[in-house]
Amino acid sequence: MSASSGERPVADPAGTQNADSGGAPAAGTGGAPAAHAGNGPAAQVTALHEDVTQLRTLRQWTSFAAVFALLVILLLIFDALMHGSTAHIAGVAGITAGFILLWYAAFRFRTRIPRTANFIRYMTPLLLYPVMYGIVHAMVTAGRPSETHLIDRVLLDIDIAIFGVNPIAWLGAHQHPLVTDLLYLAYFSYYLGMPVLMILMFRGSRLGDFRRALAAMVIGWYGALISYALFPALGPSRWMPDELPVLTGWLPTTEWIQGFLAANLAPAVRDCVPSMHTGVTLLTLMYAWRFHRTFFWIFLLPGIGIIAATMYIQAHYVIDVILGFIAAGTIYVLVERYRPV
């Protein structure tokens, strides 16, 4: 079935096609297709059926996503040191080392549990990100005191210049309990949308397509950490809470999600520029449209809700969302142009 009508083709059960562009017979054992090794046209093999027994070195085991994530973490550690702070560096290094060991263990056991090992191989950067998120922000913030580095005033001034009023306060003044309930639920669905698509693509999309989508998501998540360090901002709800109406809903889920967000947005977390709730959601919808059309239609309304909710629930300024659109478009074009794997 073509991309215009739904999901992309998946592995040929007989293992007769190689993942390389040449279409040579598969070299894998047990009828499994051989691993994709190049940037040519994707063949029918999926990541689930990739023959990891052919990957005999750590260099072959390494993916672009893993390298990019590690380089960003090292860069942020270096940045903290350059700002004269060693706070939390040991914690960030320890968590990262633990996931590297998990990734290495997957390599060592790839012949015994090939599918599980390959899942860990690819998904390690996505699993690492939420675990270290808070402590990475604490490490970065220790070198950049809030009172001297926050740019919330600049972001709010841009919003006011565009709209003539504070658009976040205006939205709060026009809130409705049902809209509040729905948009908080949509906002929370962000934590499910991209991971679900990556699992679906791991199982059913062609290997090259999956690896490009994974690269785009990792660039979005980890690249944003660099932007957060360079342009730190708390967001409307934490920077000017006294100027914003309190949002209330009818459902208990709203209060629960508000508590969840408050617990995870410690003072050190300054993750506004750009809005990657917007950026990653757009990337998820773009790749779902191309490679998993059914999931695209399932996630479309929640995805639109996520983007609207970033402003409605006072998490982001409007300019953050605009920058999220630009970031998503830039990442998509670069990944599709250079096809990192």
How much strand content do the residues show?
A: under 5%
- Count every beta strand, where a strand is a DSSP E run of 2 or more residues: 0
- Average pLDDT value? 88
Number of helices: 15
Features:
mainly alpha; globular; 65% helix; disordered N terminus; 341 residues
Could you explain how this protein is built, in words?
- The protein is mainly alpha-helical and about 350 residues long.
- The protein is about 65% helix and about 0% strand.
- The longest helix has 29 residues, at about 115-140.
- It is globular and about 60 Å long.
- The model is unreliable at about 1-40 (pLDDT under 50).
The gist of it:
By secondary structure, the chain is an all-alpha fold. The protein has helices at residues 58-61, 64-82, 89-108, 114-142, 146-149, 152-163, 167-173, 177-188, 190-204, 207-230, 236-239, 252-264, 276-291, 293-312, 318-338.
What order do the helices and strands come in, and which of them pair?
Elements (H helix, E strand, L loop, with lengths): L57 H4 L2 H19 L6 H20 L5 H29 L3 H4 L2 H12 L3 H7 L3 H12 L1 H15 L2 H24 L5 H4 L12 H13 L11 H16 L1 H20 L5 H21 L3
